[in-house]
Automatic annotation (TrEMBL), chain A:
Gene3D superfamilies: NAD(P)-binding Rossmann-like Domain (3.40.50.720). GO terms for biological process: protein neddylation. One of its GO terms (molecular function) is NEDD8 activating enzyme activity. This is NEDD8-activating enzyme E1 regulatory subunit. GO terms for cellular component: cytoplasm; ubiquitin activating enzyme complex. It comes from the Eukaryota.
Automatic annotation (TrEMBL), chain B:
Its EC number is 6.2.1.64. It catalyses: ATP + [NEDD8 protein] + [E1 NEDD8-activating enzyme]-L-cysteine = AMP + diphosphate + [E1 NEDD8-activating enzyme]-S-[NEDD8 protein]-yl-L-cysteine. The gene is NCAS0A11140. The active site is at C170 (glycyl thioester intermediate). GO terms for biological process: protein neddylation. Belongs to the ubiquitin-activating E1 family. UBA3 subfamily. This is NEDD8-activating enzyme E1 catalytic subunit. Gene3D superfamilies: NAD(P)-binding Rossmann-like Domain (3.40.50.720), Ubiquitin activating enzymes (Uba3). Chain: B, domain 2 (1.10.10.520). Residues 3-278 form the THIF-type NAD/FAD binding fold domain. It comes from the Eukaryota. One of its GO terms (molecular function) is ATP binding. GO terms for cellular component: cytoplasm; nucleus; ubiquitin activating enzyme complex. It comes from Naumovozyma castellii. Pathway: Protein modification; protein neddylation. The keyword Hydrolase does not apply.
Length: 454, 299
């Protein structure tokens, strides 16, 4: 088995390859937090780093708060082929241009104490920066801020409870032919028990259509129960009937998804001139999707092309699954055709993923144009932490922090924040799972965390 | 910190916990684990190297600390490679804290029971906090158990994630529709129970059987490979260092707060859940004691 087997199960080969090729800029001196962030990144597979430090000399310092005296060497051993670290003087950051920043997948600024440094990243003349994470930990407290100069799109957000899509209210030709060929009314109870539940639902949808009345999920449930009680009462305990009753709402296309997708498309159109190549591909996909949705008389988006397992005979299930899969492939190909006009090279695999995850498409919008806006937050805990971090006397302690807990030496807090930073870095690099937007505070005393946006 | 801590498990959470305790300068740590190191541990169990594969986890982890003077001067680590349910009650009595990073249920129930008994029999003279961490993918939890005061591990038994789907036998045998059904059949009907899943030859035989059966039922085999098959057979749970770091750190901060008297057992939450898949959701609450709990209701 693969060394990364346990995490490949979370983000797959594509995600892992993005991590393998990532190049991360770490800004900050040696500290427990920096060491913890770095450890998590190397364990996940990242091996290319640029380290911006005050003093580029190899440190021989035996830092008492570090887990290992020479942590770069120790951490390097955690990667099967070792890691590469370019050390650069912090001072050389001034005047760095787009091409310098472009080489990085991510910038992580750790325990910074100089607010002047943050001004370098104020995005006044719409300069491109990769996502920037700033983080700080003290005592039992910590925070993280993710700063984006461009939107961050997520195609694979991996929802905990994915919702299948059956489209029984807007069936395409092949589906409708397949679902009606069963002639459920002529079947005996055994044959009925072998039908996948969409067949039962569709049967009721059609009966309603013949009687000219418009169905909703409660009405469909009634219809289903009446039909089953009348024609197949022994089947009321069959798993496929129970599933049909339970999942009746899935027969209908959820209009909210269309609304959401239209908002995304609008947003895509409002974005011009994006530097990030991934973003340019998603924008092209969104524009093509806009055309796809509006090309027919009734708006419809590409179908996901998958159905979950359901009670059924093998044969019926495999046939039904194939029909959804074929339609999914057909829709994907149509979208690909529309995409040709956008003049953006998008790999077919990405188009497939885009269609298969359309319902869960997500975006984190760019942050305010200045990284230093952090200081204008009115969150008490964040303000108190910033006051400690940057030694700001003009911000009075609001009392959100227990001073004893803030001055305590808590290595675990650095480790906790290092875990959050690592997790967010992975999400940003792989474009999988949804990053936090955009401030996260940790209060280890109350065991509470908070997320808010500035 | 002048105390003795027992760490259960030297896996993903165990390595993190041991590291944190060393950094907190805990005087003595005992660590129990009966497993050996495998290649797939190395994406998160950072006290181990490739050359440690097949060595016992507990001794290798202890050695990492004990071999480095800067660390061993802070913390002495004593490893045990054995089943912890074989320890006598007196063994547990020597510790001020017990932190668990186990994934199995039974050993945790065992320790919980022992600790509650100790508290009961000593009439509250002995009260050893039991802090339990667990992770699964980007999710995790921390339970803080103060025997006799807060809900015990048994009280919250029903919060455990439901075991992986079990499929009705008639589906698996007669109407298989998914690769899971195929693999389930091969493992429970077509092969003997004493299969060695570490043996490449046997694994390959299994794999061929799965492929044949899938083809026989026309089930798409695009996703079927050895790692997918083993994932289902061994019920493998995804695991990544970041989540382990967060959960282990929360466990250790809980311990620190108890040690420095920064916790209010009556008021503060004893149960924290974390989910990092969408943003970073955490929820801490006070899990009430179950008045009918089979383990702690008499205390």
């Amino acid at each position: 088995m693969d060394r990364y087997d346990r995490q490949l199960r979370l983000w797959g080969k594509e995600g892992q390859s993005l991590l393998d090729n990532a190049n991360i800029c770490v800004v900050g001196d040696e500290s427990p937090l920096l060491q913890e962030v770095w450890k998590n990144l190397v364990l996940s597979g990242v091996s290319k780093f640029t380290w911006m430090i005050e003093n580029t000399m190899e440190s021989s310092l035996q830092e008492k708060d570090l887990f290992s005296c020479d942590f770069i060497t120790e951490i390097s051993a955690l990667h099967p082929s070792g890691i590469r670290v370019k050390r650069k003087a912090l001072a050389s950051l001034k005047g760095a241009d787009n091409s310098f920043w472009f080489q990085f997948s991510l910038i992580i600024i750790i325990n910074c104490s100089d607010s002047k440094l943050l001004e370098l990243f104020n995005n006044s003349d719409s300069q491109y920066f990769p996502p920037i994470i700033t983080t700080f930990a003290t005592g039992l407290y910590g925070y993280l801020h993710t700063y984006l100069s461009e939107p961050h799109f997520i195609i694979e957000s991996h929802p905990d409870n994915p919702i299948p899509e059956l489209r029984l209210d807007q069936p395409w030709k092949e589906l409708s032919i397949y679902l009606t060929k069963f002639q459920v009314d002529k079947m005996n109870e055994f044959e009925i028990s072998e039908l996948p539940y969409p067949v039962l639902l569709f049967h009721c949808v059609q009966m309603a259509a013949r009687n000219n009345y418009k169905l909703t999920s409660p009405l469909l449930r009634n219809e289903l129960r009446r039909w089953a009680s009348d024609t197949n009462p022994t089947g009321l305990n069959d798993p496929n009937y129970i599933e049909a009753y339970r999942f009746a709402h899935l027969a209908f296309t959820n209009e909210k998804i269309l609304i959401r997708l239209n908002e995304m498309i609008q947003y895509g159109f409002s974005m011009d001139h994006l530097d990030d190549p991934y973003n340019r591909k998603v924008i092209a996909l969104l524009k093509a999707l806009g055309e796809y949705i509006n090309r027919e008389d009734f708006p419809i988006y590409p179908i996901m092309g998958t159905i979950p397992d359901m009670s059924s005979s093998t044969k019926n299930y495999i046939e039904l699954k194939q029909i959804y899969q074929n339609e999914g492939q057909k829709n994907t190909k149509s979208l690909q055709k529309l995409l040709d006009k956008e003049g953006e090279e998008v790999p077919f695999e990405m188009i497939k993923l885009f269609c298969a995850n359309l319902k869960y498409l997500n975006v984190i919008k760019p942050t305010a144009s200045k990284l230093t806006l952090l200081f204008s937050s009115d969150d008490d805990l964040l303000r108190d932490l910033l006051a400690i971090q940057y030694n700001l006397n003009d911000i009075a302690n609001s009392g959100a922090i227990n001073m004893k807990a803030a001055s305590m030496n808590s290595y675990p807090t650095a480790s906790f924040m290092g875990g959050v930073v690592g997790q967010e870095a992975i999400k940003l690099i792989t474009h999988q799972y949804i990053p936090l937007d955009n401030i996260f505070t940790y209060d280890g005393l109350k065991n509470e965390t908070k997320i808010f946006r500035i | 910190m002048d105390c003795k801590v027992l760490v259960l498990g030297a896996g993903g959470l165990g390595c993190e916990i041991l590291k944190n305790l060393t950094m907190m300068r805990v005087k003595e740590v005992h660590i129990v684990d009966m497993d050996t190191i495998e290649l797939t541990n190395l994406n998160r169990q950072f006290l181990f190297r490739d050359e440690d594969i097949n060595s016992p986890k507990a001794t290798t982890a202890a050695q990492y600390i004990n071999d480095r003077p800067s660390l061993s001067s802070r913390t002495k680590v004593i490893p045990y490679v054995q089943d912890l349910t074989n320890f006598p009650t007196e063994f547990f009595q020597q510790f001020q804290f017990i932190i668990s990073g186990l994934d199995a249920i039974e050993p945790r129930r065992f320790v919980n029971k022992v600790l509650l008994q100790l508290t009961k029999e000593s009439n509250y003279d002995i009260c050893i906090p039991f802090i339990d961490g667990g992770t699964e993918g980007l999710k995790g939890h921390v339970k803080t158990i103060i025997p006799g005061f807060t809900a015990c591990w048994e009280c919250s038994l029903n919060t455990l994630p439901t075991q992986q789907n079990t499929y009705p036998m008639c589906t698996v045998a007669n109407n298989p529709r998914t690769l899971e059904h195929i693999i389930e059949y091969v493992i429970s009907v077509q092969t003997s129970a004493d299969m060695d899943l570490e043996d490449e030859g046997q694994v390959d035989t299994l794999f061929q059987l799965c492929k044949e059966r899938a083809n026989q039922f026309n089930i798409d085999t695009k996703k079927l490979n050895v790692s997918y098959m083993l994932g289902i057979i061994k019920k493998i749970v995804p695991s990544v260092s970041c989540t382990n770091a967060m959960i282990a750190a929360s466990c250790c901060n809980q311990m620190m707060k108890i040690y420095y008297d920064l916790m209010d057992f009556e008021k503060d939450g004893n149960f924290t859940m974390i989910n990092g898949a969408d943003g970073c959701f955490t929820y801490t609450f006070a899990y009430d004691r179950d008045p009918h709990c089979a383990v702690c209701s008499g205390i």
